[in-house]
Design a protein that fits this description.
Layout: H1 18-32, H2 38-49, H3 55-70, H4 77-93, H5 105-126, H6 131-136, H7 144-162
Helix pairs in contact: 1-2, 3-4, 3-5, 4-5, 5-7
């Protein structure tokens, strides 16, 4: 869902340090001098993406309007976001997992719940939803957001054990 957000919904560029910008430029020059190949072009593409908002950047950005108000209810959510993206990349691109997702599928569900909560709640906050008032009320856990909030600390604890 975050991959298809319009540019106005998340930053498209990320500030690079001067050191990183220079390293990117040097590497680009080295690869441009090599004969054209799939691998060379792949690296040049990856270098071109350095400085562009990654999926992790976009999700963190979208989460900020929630965290600015009720961040204490969701400590270490950036770790959860990062791990959710690693999990997604494992299933989409075949990259290495952080742990065995099949054996620990509750954590995969936690990642999905986290991404759904951030995606929807950030839009609701932008539309005027009083997330602090919602967070101050008890939940019957009949809504996914209430269930997510009520189980967040337990799910985070399980994730930390796996990591």
């Amino acid at each position: 869902m975050f991959d298809i957000l319009p540019e106005s919904a998340a930053p498209s560029d990320v500030d690079l340090t001067e050191e990183l910008r220079k390293a990117k430029d040097r590497c680009r020059q080295i690869f441009l001098e090599l004969p054209v190949s799939v691998e060379r072009n792949s690296i040049l593409g990856a270098l071109g993406r350095i400085g562009k908002a990654s999926l992790k950047h976009k999700i963190r950005y979208r989460s900020q309007n929630i965290l600015d108000v009720i961040g204490s209810k969701f400590p270490e959510i950036h770790t959860v976001i990062d791990e959710a993206v690693i999990c997604r990349n494992h299933y989409v691109h075949g990259s290495d997992p952080s742990f065995d997702y099949n054996t620990n599928f509750d954590s995969v569900q936690f990642f999905t719940d986290t991404l759904e909560f951030i995606f929807a709640a950030s839009d609701l906050v932008e539309a005027g939803w009083d997330v602090a008032a919602w967070c101050a009320k008890p939940t019957s856990m009949s809504h996914p957001f209430g269930r997510y909030r009520a189980t967040y600390f337990e799910s985070l604890g399980q994730l930390k054990k796996l990591l």
